[in-house]
Structures are given as structure tokens and as C-alpha cells.
Amino acid sequence: MATPPPASQAQISRGVAWAGAAQAIIAIADLVSQALVLALFVSFTDYGIAGLALAFYYVLDTAADLGVTSAVIQRDDHTPEKLSTVFWFNVLLSGGLFVVLLGLGPLYGHLVGYPIVGWLLIAYGGKLLFQNVYAIPFALLKKDLRFDEIAKARTLAHVCESIARVAFAAAGATIWCFTLAALVRVVVFGVFIQARHPFLPRWVFRPREVIDYIKFGVRSGTSQILYQLYVNLDYAVVGAYFGAKAVGAYKLAYEIVLEPVRSITNVVSDVAFPTFARLRHEPARLAAQLTRFIRLNFTTVLPFLVVIALLADSLVLVFSHHQTPEDLVLAADCCRILCFVGIVRAVGFLGPPLLDGIGHPERTLRYMVFSALWMPAAFALGASVLGGELGARAVAIAWAVGYPLAFALLVYLVRRSIGLRLTEVARACAGVIACSLAGLAVGLGARVLTADLPTAARLAIVGGAAAVTIVGLLVGWQGMRWSAIKASMRNDAAP
């Protein structure tokens, strides 16, 4: 296969724009469905029980692929035989993992005291087998930067998942609704991707020809597995120290803050890896592109976190139908603590795609090994030392205190790899940060003035004042334009 042409700035901008449009629709659909499910059908206890399984779904997704399809994006020497071998390798891997889940799932359910958790994991194992239907064509679409087609597929699949989540919950599947909806999503996504980029594997399995793919994938995939473990072990710590109900309150805070941050930054991260892979031989362009991506993440994440920090106590009231006031206060407090974590993670999400994209997955692995050892220790330490007084808030504080240390290691590895100048990054992002701080100040003033108003009115006034201030400054001072975003989504965008 010929080496693909260098990525133009128009291609990169178009990819970000399409991914952003898709993520906006996905985020709204997911938020509405989660609110309906928790407000009308699912208690924090049931949500916490489901969360003990949901926390490991991303780990299983990564383990079923082991990063080998990432090598399809990063490398340029594909042949039908190599792609077919990668496909069959993934089938063997996911099949073996499903067999393991048949044994470990019930054991895990017994250990946490809820056998249904084991069955949830086994059911999700079926998803791991099905994802082979779209893994290769999805990677090829990413490699070709065809993010408009990916965006349409993701939007349709996630909207179907949101509808299914509410339908299953309304039908009485209060614990199962999240897992069953995820299965609906993957089927819809697989059918769409195959329709847009059909792929049928050949009856060929030549592992020697893809040994480099496997080596790259094992390092990259192991990093992703370690990442998913350390970012989800906080649920296990909360459950072990404070019980399933506390997991439900803590998970709600995580879903309000850090999950949207992940979704928002995934808009850029999905484009970042193939972009960095294309630019891996151009250090100057790499550093400049990383700086643009960091600024873009701050532009989208900081306003969101400002609004959440201002309105956390009012937002959780949306989910109050089945929950106690104490649980809602706990969720609101965790929201505000995790907002600080979200600021750092907005940048941290870009480090691994860069290191992997330029061919240094071993450096990503070093960072992930450190984080996988350090962060669970921080969670357990926080729960044991502060948990008696603060409850699950102690684990959120452990995030806020512990993650910046892991992030510092990541910054060091990125600087070492591409010679990034932090002063240039700070200069590029200073205006966006100032706009967000101004919005926070205006929002705090609005909170004081609206203290006696009903919740709905307070949400609208405080959130609106902060958002209008930030967006107004971004447009008037930082030059953000809707017309530029629309131009980026057109195929004829200027380079």
C-alpha cells in the first residue's frame, strides 16, 4: 500500500469539526437519556450495582483488540493478507477473552456481593465478539481521515443507544438497561461502518507478516488497558469502602464531569492519533499541531467545567426523584472536586495519541504503568485516611491530588519526544483561560444575586451569564467564529 499523502490543515480541521458536531449530538442525547433513567426509573443503588460492571467495559474493549488495529492506522504497509491476519488475530483474542469472562465474571460478582454484575460482564463479552465486524474498516476510515462518515455512524449508534437505555429502563430492566443499550449501539455502529467501508477477511492467517503490528499493538494496547484500569478502579474503591449507594452518587458526579470531558476531548483525540502519525517525521509541525489541539481542548472543556462548577448543586436535583438529599449533596461535592481534574485531563488525553502516533508506544506504556500503580494507591489512601469524615468525596480528592503528579510525567515524556516548548503552549492558551476565569467570576456574582430564586430560574440565569460571558469573549477577543467551523466541515475547505 502506498504511503498516504501528508495531512493538510484543512483535513485536520474538517475532522475536528465533524467529530465535534457528532459529539455535541451524542452528548445531548446521552445527557437526556441518563437524566430520564435516573430521575424516573433507576435508584442510586441500582446505578451503583450496574456501575461495578460498567467501570470495566472500556478495559474489555481495549483487551479484545490489544491495540493491534491502532497499528493499522499508524503503519502504511497494509496488504489484504495482513489486514485479514489482524482480523483473525482479533477474533481469537476476543473469543479467548469471552471464555475468560465466563469464569471470572461470576467470581467478580460474588466478590462484590452482587451476582448480577458477573452476568452483566458476560453479556458484554458478546459485544467484544461482534466488534470484530467493524474493527478493520473503522481503522481504515480513521487512517484516511474520513471523519465525516465516522461522525454519522457514531451519531446514529449513540442516539439509538440513548433511546434503548430509556426503553429498557421503562420496561423494568433498571440494572440491565445500560448494558443492553450498549449492545444496541455496537450493532447499529457495526452495520453502518460495514456499509460505508465493506470489509470481508480472507481465509489467511500469517502471524509472521504482522509481527510488527502485534508488537506495536501490544505496547499500545497494554497502555490502554492500564489506563482503563486506573481510571475505573475508583468505583471499586468507593464500593469497597462506602457501598453500592455511594458508588451511584459518585458515578453520577463522574458522569456529569469527567465522562463529558472525555467525550469532548475525544473529538480532538480521535483526529489526533492519525494526524500525529501522518506528521511523525515533521517535529516542528507536530509541536505546532499539538499546541493547536491543546488550545482547542481548553476552548471546549473550560467553559463546560465553569458552568458545572457553578451549578453542580442545582444540576443534581434533576436526578432527585429516587435519591435522598444526602446522596445528592455528595454527588454535587464530588462534581466540584472533579472539575479540577477535568482541567488537567483535557490536556492529558493528548499525550498518549502523540507518543503512539510518532512510534513511541513504549513511552506511553511507562506513563501508564506509573499511573496504574500510583492512582489506585491514591484512591485507597484517600478513602482510608479521609473517608471516615468525607465519604466518597475522599476518592474525588485523591483524583485531584494524585493525577497532577502522573500528568507531570506525561509532560516530561512529550517534551522529550518532540521538544515541545511549554511557554508557547501557555501563550497560546492564556486568552482562553482568561475568558473562562471571567465567566467564572460573572457566574459567581450571578449565584449571589439569584440565591433566593427557584432552581430552574437559577440554573438559567447563572449558567447563561457565565456561558454568554465566555462565548462573547472567545468570539470578540479570541476570534472564534461559527463560519470557520462550518467551512471546516465542507470538503472544499481551504488549506
Number of strands: 0
Strand content: under 5%
Helix content: over 70%
- Mean pLDDT comes to 84
Radius of gyration: 22 Å
DSSP helical segment count: 20
Sketch the major β-sheet.
none
Order of helices and strands: HHHHHHHHHHHHHHHHHHHH
Shape: globular
Strand-pairing-aware structural class:
mainly alpha
Low-confidence stretches: 485-495
Distance between the termini: 26 Å
Topology, please?
Blueprint: H1 9-40, H2 44-54, H3 57-63, H4 68-74, H5 80-112, H6 115-130, H7 132-143, H8 147-170, H9 177-196, H10 211-242, H11 244-256, H12 258-278, H13 283-315, H14 325-348, H15 351-357, H16 361-390, H17 393-418, H18 422-449, H19 455-476, H20 482-489
What does this structure look like?
The protein is mostly helical and 495 residues long. The chain starts with 8 loop residues before the first helix and ends in a 6-residue tail after the last helix. Helix 15 packs parallel to helix 17. The longest helix has 33 residues. It is 82% helix and 0% strand.
